[in-house]
Amino acid sequence: MSTVEIVDRSEMVDTLKSRLRIAPSTTAIVAVDMHRGHLDPAIATMPATPEDCASVIKHTKNLLDFARGAGIPVIHVILIQRNIPGLGAEGLNLKFWKALHEIANAENRLTPGRKSTAADHNLVGSPGTEIIPELLHPSDHVINNKKRLDCFYGTDLEILLRVLKTETVVLTGINTNTCVLNTAFTACNRDFQVVVISDCVASMYGRDLHVLGLENVKRCLGYVLTVEEFKNKIRGAQG
């Protein structure tokens, strides 16, 4: 397969970013699947790389601590699956996910070079369903009935965002190219301003799909900022 060069849209992206305004009072952070099932290498059933786990947790803690101090609500949305007799995790009802599970071996895994399983991922009551402790605060909101790649689908996320008077949805989490990207699409389709924090997302599928996810957001759906860039936007709005 030939190498595809990423189109340089940096001037457009930088111009849009310079014009971006974020009001703390109408902003919410949505942390996507920041649970042990992805981010704790010791027990994760679909792990990101250890390096990505450490980096995403560190930067997200920084972001969430700042956001809470600025009065910005934090919403955790996590996948929890029932264990269906004769099937396993209910997500295996999707034929493609089941096919991936059936061919999984050392060469054919969702997580290149790391053990993973779709059949046991984030089953009800398993430790993988626990939100990373340092990212959770008693003031946070938790939605724990996500079943597919989109945080809006089948959950009350939009209702909560509307109750909170949200206009800007700030996304962090796993995986950049699947759950974060799917949620960014729906947020955009429902007229929210979309921001993805680049140092608070990663992909267990590989670095290439992480880059794809970020490129798709910043060129088609919204804004990609670092933690520090986000902080500066909020400080500017407060000043």
What does this structure look like?
38% of the residues lie in helices and 18% in strands. The protein is globular. The protein has helices spanning 10-19, 36-39, 50-69, 95-103, 157-163, 176-189, 207-221, 227-238, and strands at residues 27-32, 74-79, 83-84, 88-89, 141-146, 168-174, 193-202, 223-225. It has 239 residues and is an alpha/beta fold. It starts with 9 loop residues before the first helix and ends with a helix. The strands form two sheets. It has a six-stranded parallel beta sheet with strand order 5-2-1-6-7-8. The chain contains eight helices and eight strands; from the N terminus they run αβααβββαβαβαβαβα. α6 packs parallel to α7 (207-221). The protein has a single domain (10-79, 131-238), classed as Isochorismatase-like (Rossmann fold, 3-Layer(aba) Sandwich).
CATH architecture descriptor: 3-Layer(aba) Sandwich
Q: Can you tell me the CATH superfamily?
A: Isochorismatase-like
Shape: globular
How confident is the prediction overall: mean pLDDT?
94
Q: So what's the oligomer here?
A: single chain
Share of β-strand residues: 15-25%
Total number of distinct structural domains: 1
